Amino acid sequence: MPHGSSAHRFAKALRKVPGRVAIMTALLTVPFPASPALAGSSAKAGPGAEYGSYPSTYKPLPSRETAIVNASILTAAGALIEHGTIVMRQGRILAVGKDVPVPAGAVTIDGTGKWVTPGVIDAHSHLGVFPAPAVKGQVDLNENVAPNTAEVWAEHAIWPQDPNFDRVRAGGVTSMLILPGSSNLFGGRGVAIKNVPALTAQAMKFPGAPYDLKMACGENPKSRYGSRGRSPATRMGNVAGYRKAWIDAADYLRKWDAYNEKTARGEDAAPPKRDLALETLAGVLKGEILVQNHCYRADEMATMIDLSKEFGYRITAFHHATEAYKVAGLLAANGICVATWADHWGFKMEAYDAIEENAAILAKAGVCVVMHSDSAERAQRLNVQAAIALAAGRRAGIDIPKTEAVKWFTAYPARIMGVADRTGTLEPGKMADVVMWNHDPFSIYAIAEKVFIDGALVFDADDPATQHRSDFELGQPAGDL
Amino acid sequence: MFCKWIYTAGTAAALALAGSAQAETIAIINAHIVTPGPVGDVPEGTVLIEGDRIAAAGANVAVPASAHVIDAKGAPVTPGLIAVDTMLGLKEVSSVSGTTDNHTTSPGISAALDVQYGLNPDSTMIPIARLGGITRAVAMPDYDDSDKQRHLAFAGQAAMISLEEGPDILFKPRIGMVLEMGEHGAQRAGGSRAAEIIRLRMLFDALQHRKQRGKADTGGTGLSAADLEALRPVASGAMPLIVSVHSAPDIRQALKLARDYRLKIVLNGAEEAWRAAPEIASAHVPVMLTPPSNMPSSFELLGATLHNAAMLNKAGVEIAITGNDPTHSVRDMRFNAGIAVSRGLPYAAAIEAITLTPARMFGLDGQLGSIAPGKIADIVIWDGDPLEPLSGPTAIFVAGKVQPMTSRQRELRDRYLEPAP
């Protein structure tokens, strides 16, 4: 195995991190409804993650039993299998390995010279809410009329005809976390989706995935509202705004707890009035909704960690986090992942200290690193982002093996979206979200040749008939994907 | 060995030695020379640098005894990359207006804006871009979009800059005039593309004295005397007009304008150029483009595709490949060249699109853009394929001077490489 010794060193580094096991357990034991029918049940009493949600109607597309043979397979579960075979059956991965028999009747794809990875997962996307064309009438990214809009949900605005869904699918993206923007302290709920062609957001909604709350630090909220003569105008105001909201959320939760206790005792009680914003925040305090926190500066991340401890919630990931490398130990100790870019920097002061080695330094410290896009263009090549970050690490003497770096755009984004038990690695039983590349995915020349979602071939570079194009692009001068 | 010193590219010792060897003779031996031009691809060659120039390059180059020798050990050696459509030296932090000198709202200064006077050689972006193998860049002005008047017809004049360490980064001023057409150009002309073109036609009619009666009418562009003076070389066809334009219909209008007034133009952006490739080729108009720009983000980008670069090359159009933005992501230009290769652009054409073609677009190919005797010694030694993210430069020479392999980002890296206990 190439980079064997560094892989070992890396695994050791991960083991040393206190709290690592605890995070994974915490993420995996969040009580997900198991089926689309349950997801979105509005029958539950009280505030919570699923309360008031509109159900996922996602159904895996028709698939045929398929085997890719003789490929270099990066499982994102630690292995690089040379001359390996992967078999997909009924939407699931049936087997992966060197000596896996190809079932009779399976569609067999010659993977000679090809590479196979899990489907790419983008844990920071605005597709559908900031769609193309991004023209008047189309943009639904920020409900930027108040600093706390925890009541809005991205899924209520996703435009499934965003032509960029098709483009990122051609780049191998099989799942995404669609987040509201970062103008507000609390931007609203994000939603995990599967990147299938669909007519409704409900039909894309990742069945059983937890919800997310988008929070934002720093320049965006303070400049948005400070320039309008209202709080927050400073980072002080930002933190005061978070604290006020969490105090309200804790109070709201107590009212519902009291109500639930009374009704459990058989007493008559009037339910508290629902409050959409507090419902979402309460969902975070109950551990059901994952916090995805836009935050660039090291010092602000430390403050946000203190804030989370003050109110008893977990931060799942800091996003962008261009200074995370300065506090790698703190993030590792608190089990917080970092979703970042490889080399995006300098567009504002809080991004001035971004370095290409951010991911590698974090990885070395045992932080789980996610290459995110925040753009439809970057999302088409998250593998290249990983390659840039990997190369920077190598130049600095941090030799992370590809078997680990592949997790930056597969297994770890699945983890921070709370779906790591279902997708993100190539292991038997998982969703057959799979990409076959024509080259090593860490090469600039790599193209996603075949993309499978739940075992269904949703993009084939050689077969235009498989290449879905949005309604918007019909009758327009669109070029090839 | 007959040489005074031998060292390997990429070692700190080599750089220190070479640093003290300015204006002396440097021989890069065992080089895999990758360059456009007659030297071509030489799997095992030597590049000889004397002072600021390339003295010789090829398979059979005699190395003088006095030369400092760098053993490239078979690594690729290319011309320094030339970035087009940048604001290097004109901007530091995008959101901090005190650090941005790439545009103005001054009503009397449109075409007259000359970026050579706003260059900041201390910008941290310069060494950061240089570590991406970039040794020269076209620094271009743009428009201030916060200016709701949008009265500026032209953004101003571009300069070729050098990315060398030191106080003087200006290489050649006034190499091109920047004009934005398409949707944004139309907005500056009151909201209609037709109005913008009428305005431009009135302007060039006046500058070329095509209309005899009465005073020259500059079409309400609000251009000052200084602006009109700055536009004279454009009107005479001496200075390229760098036209930012996206859709195929707008590209055709730009070509027609250039034909009618015999202007030398360069198309910039040109995401739908593939739809007008034969016309662009027959007009001998070069194109600056960004291969990953494939999203229908506006109605003038509906035809944007990853295949644009390859299709234009196939049609015989000269292309230069940019980074992902004009500032902080300029260094990604080599990856963008690789992306174009992944979609069918021949490798040699991709290398040319980031070296010689940008030089040729501005008439500087006699001095820059390839490894050839007599040219300025802008040279990069790489540890692998220069288009691959997993590769990077190990040594960079600008005008024969070895450059430090440091930047503010590298210093931040080194400060935080070992985590705090």
UniProtKB/TrEMBL annotation, chain A:
Residues 1-39 form the signal peptide. Residues 326-459 form the Amidohydrolase domain. It comes from Novosphingobium beihaiensis. It comes from the Bacteria. SUPFAM superfamilies: Composite domain of metallo-dependent hydrolases, Metallo-dependent hydrolases. Keywords: Signal. This is Amidohydrolase.
From TrEMBL, chain B:
It comes from the Bacteria. Residues 1-23 form the signal peptide. Keywords: Signal. InterPro entries: Amidohydro-rel, Metal-dep_hydrolase_composite, Metal_Hydrolase, Metallo-dep_Hydrolase. Residues 294-391 form the Amidohydrolase-related domain. Pfam families: Amidohydro_1. PANTHER family: ALPHA-D-RIBOSE 1-METHYLPHOSPHONATE 5-TRIPHOSPHATE DIPHOSPHATASE. This is Amidohydrolase family protein.
